[in-house]
Amino acid sequence: xKVATPGSTIGILGGGQLGxxxxxxxxxxxxxxxxxxxxxxxxxxxxxxxxxxxGWGDTAALAAFATQCDVVTWEFENVPLTxxxxxxxxxxxxxxxxxQVAQDRLAEKRFVEELGATCAPYMRVESDEDFRRALDRIxxxxxxxxxxxxxxxxxxxxxxxxxxxxxxxxxxxxxxYEGMVDFDAEFSVILVRGHDGEVxxxxxxxxxxxxxxxxxxxxxxxxxxxxxxxxxxxxxRQTADALQYVGVLTLEFFATKQxxxxxxxxxxxxxxxxxxxxxxxxxxxxxHIRAICGLPLGATETRFASIDMRNIVGEDAQSAHQxxxxxxxxxxxxxxxxxxxxxxxxxxxxxxSHKT
Length: 356
Ligand code: AMP
Known about the structure:
With 356 residues, this protein is α+β, with helices and mostly antiparallel strands.
């Protein structure tokens, strides 16, 4: 692998807050970032040297973007594979295969099961008959999820009882029906893998979700997570190796009485790793840039006794500046989104403590 020298251009597919934070980390290391995403509230564009606001099907624009890039990555896992495949494979990191697997809930479950992971009971649902069969076999409570393009709880229907299931119809797109997992906590394993196969892993936070969306990540994660994190790390490491992955990879798990149950993977930096900006020796953003540019990876150790990262969701970012007046060390990050909508991630705040 060729090391990307200072001044090289990193192309980022997607224009959201993850791209914005990747761009900040890349700038610090002397790189220039350009972005590509369809027209919208592309908050990484404010920081990029150039930004292509073009559709994912615009082959001429994709080609023009690719010619400018020394390295290409993505910040959004629903970038269509056709757009990713329009990038030069030898400059793309991670590889397209990881996106192909992670874009399909069935494919990612099968992939990790082959490596020995446990998933919630699940069945593919492609018709109303499939759905009734899945309800018969798996029972309730459960969740019907679209196989593709769901995020932050979107494209999901929670079904509490057989009675409730009667009112739910197959939504017309391939889905997976999963049994509801009775968990003690949720956690993710976030790792970075370099071109040479070296893997480094951050501590796992306990993650709290509301309505299917992450709202809070805390360290220490508590005994139920700590007792099973090693098994989960092993699965994550094997997944990264099997994909010959380069960059930051996230696997989400439920901590249950029977051990870790895999939920889903994200082939990218992750919301549950935002705490690493202040809380770890090297952030997930910097290590992703280091990995894809062929630089040595940074240490991932946690630097504080406790950490509390909370998302700022749907609120007007103007009032968030009040957080800066708090005691302690509140580290505020606002994403520059122009419109606050319900359920929209506007920023996050990380509070750290030197003592437990
Ligand atoms: P997902 O989009 O699959 O990550 O789901 C979002 C959130 O919904 C998860 O982080 C959990 O809080 C919850 N959830 C999803 N699937 C299940 C399940 N099978 N059992 C229990 N909770 C779930």
